[in-house]
């Protein structure tokens, strides 16, 4: 994983498929400029989740962008995903690193400097920090202030991406925070034209980060 891979990090959600398959939605996001894909599922059984993971992984490999699975460490290992992303209530980051090995990508969600430092020490490769704006995609997401986001970026040496309620209209508010990219769900996948939404959001994010 390169730092620039984290610029436009797309997290899947089948809630807005509107007749598309998830693979079709992901393909459109990649064509629009998504630089990283996280497969997030909460309600599929193992075999369905595995089949979906293999489909999405194939698209990401063709596009040469990282592919990680949310939460399900065993599945990530089974399908040989590029890595896994875990939250504070999932498996502890050090245990995850032990299961996925030293070369796989480990992303960890953090909302405080303490959580961020602990995740970095446990072997995290990047942090997802949020929710930086109110969000309807994750009902359990607590807000993280701009001050805390900047403090986390200052405290760790690994890349930080912001997540939560980010849109093409408010991404500029994250300027000078220290992040290297953004993670979004509805800002891409809830749009009728996923490809165009991803392209526009990538442009706005590059402007916000002075890239």
TrEMBL record:
Catalytic activity, reaction form: 4-methyl-5-(2-phosphooxyethyl)-thiazole + 4-amino-2-methyl-5-(diphosphooxymethyl)pyrimidine + H(+) = thiamine phosphate + diphosphate; 2-(2-carboxy-4-methylthiazol-5-yl)ethyl phosphate + 4-amino-2-methyl-5-(diphosphooxymethyl)pyrimidine + 2 H(+) = thiamine phosphate + CO2 + diphosphate; 2-[(2R,5Z)-2-carboxy-4-methylthiazol-5(2H)-ylidene]ethyl phosphate + 4-amino-2-methyl-5-(diphosphooxymethyl)pyrimidine + 2 H(+) = thiamine phosphate + CO2 + diphosphate
Positions of 4-amino-2-methyl-5-(diphosphooxymethyl)pyrimidine binding: 38-42, 70, 109, 138
InterPro entries associated with the record: Aldolase_TIM, ThiamineP_synth_sf, ThiamineP_synth_TenI, TMP_synthase
UniProt KW Membrane keyword: no
Molecular-function GO terms, alphabetical: magnesium ion binding; thiamine-phosphate diphosphorylase activity
Binding site for Mg(2+): 71, 90
Binding site for 2-[(2R,5Z)-2-carboxy-4-methylthiazol-5(2H)-ylidene]ethyl phosphate: 135-137, 165, 185-186
Domain Thiamine phosphate synthase/TenI: 8-188
Cofactor: Mg(2+)
Record Gene3D superfamilies: Aldolase class I
Protein keywords: Magnesium, Metal-binding, Thiamine biosynthesis, Transferase
Keyword Mitochondrion: no
Transmembrane segments: none
Gene Ontology biological-process annotations: thiamine biosynthetic process; thiamine diphosphate biosynthetic process
Pfam families membership: TMP-TENI
A single Gene Ontology CC term: cytoplasm
Superkingdom in the source lineage: Bacteria
EC number: 2.5.1.3
UniProt pathway: Cofactor biosynthesis; thiamine diphosphate biosynthesis; thiamine phosphate from 4-amino-2-methyl-5-diphosphomethylpyrimidine and 4-methyl-5-(2-phosphoethyl)-thiazole: step 1/1
Cofactor binding, per record: Binds 1 Mg(2+) ion per subunit.
Family indicated by similarity: Belongs to the thiamine-phosphate synthase family.
Function field: Condenses 4-methyl-5-(beta-hydroxyethyl)thiazole monophosphate (THZ-P) and 2-methyl-4-amino-5-hydroxymethyl pyrimidine pyrophosphate (HMP-PP) to form thiamine monophosphate (TMP).
Protein name: Thiamine-phosphate synthase
Annotated organism of origin: Catenisphaera adipataccumulans
């Amino acid at each position: 994983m390169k730092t620039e891979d984290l610029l436009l990090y797309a997290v899947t959600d089948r809630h807005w498929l509107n007749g598309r398959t998830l693979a079709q939605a992901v393909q459109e996001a990649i064509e629009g400029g998504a630089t990283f894909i996280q497969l997030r599922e909460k309600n599929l059984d193992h075999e369905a989740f595995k089949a979906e993971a293999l489909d999405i992984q194939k698209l990401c490999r063709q596009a040469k962008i990282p592919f990680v699975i949310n939460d399900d460490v065993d599945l990530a290992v089974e399908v040989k995903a590029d890595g896994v992303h875990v939250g504070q209530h999932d498996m502890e980051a050090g245990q995850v690193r032990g299961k996925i090995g030293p070369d796989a990508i480990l992303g960890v969600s953090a909302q405080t400097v303490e959580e961020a430092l602990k995740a970095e020490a446990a072997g995290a490769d990047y942090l997802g920090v949020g929710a930086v704006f109110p969000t309807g995609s994750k009902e359990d997401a607590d807000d993280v202030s701009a001050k805390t986001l900047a403090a986390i970026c200052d405290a760790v040496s690994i890349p930080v991406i912001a997540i939560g309620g980010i849109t093409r209209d408010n991404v500029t508010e994250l300027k000078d925070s220290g992040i290297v990219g953004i993670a979004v769900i509805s800002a891409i996948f809830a749009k009728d034209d996923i490809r165009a939404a991803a392209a526009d959001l990538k442009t706005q994010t590059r402007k916000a980060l002075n890239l």
